[in-house]
Amino acid sequence: MSSDKLLSISEAARATGKSIPTIRNYLDKGKLPNAKSKAKGSSKAWQIPLTDLVAAGLLDRVTTASEPATAPVSEVMELREQVAALTAENAQLRERLDDLKQSRADLIAAYAPQIETGQKQATRRSWFGRK
Q: Does residue 51 fall inside a structural domain?
């Protein structure tokens, strides 16, 4: 978020985690001095600078576009460990799947001569006079 960005009341409420009536209360008490209202029909449309929200204690700070959002190093290290563990588990599961596929192929090859085809079944039924 840029420090010169202007927010509406609902955007300010979303950004701060406060309710719309709370933001209106801050406006009414003058705690957001640089906020400007524009007439929009019979109502007002507010433009609240982010710096006012920070000054009023509603936001911790304003980040600029030049400041990269960084995650704590410990969180990054923990995520890397999780990725490594999941990669190893994935490799084991792939090996197990390959083993199961080979077992299936071996079973099919071993029992193929014993499996009756439709033709064999028809021949057997004809021996007993059935169609």
A: yes
pLDDT at position 82 is 96
The CB-based long-range contact list for 112-118 (8 Å cut-off, 24+ gap) reads: none
| Total count of domains within the chain | 2
What whole-number distance in Å separates Cα of residue 34 and Cα of residue 30?
9
Tell me how far the alpha carbon of residue 63 is from its chain's centroid: 23
Task: Give strand pairing partners of 7.
Answer: 48
Angle at 116 between CA 111 and CA 120, to 5 degrees: 145
In a domain, 35, yes or no: yes
Domain boundaries, position 93: 73-114
**Residue 39: strand pairing partners:** 44
As a whole number of angstroms, the distance between CA 124 and CA 129 comes to: 9
- Is 77's pLDDT higher than 70? yes
Instruction: Round to whole Å and give the CA distance between 36 and 92.
Output: 61
Q: Is 37 helix (H, G, I), strand (E, B) or coil?
A: strand
Count of CB atoms situated within 10 Å of the CB of 20? 13
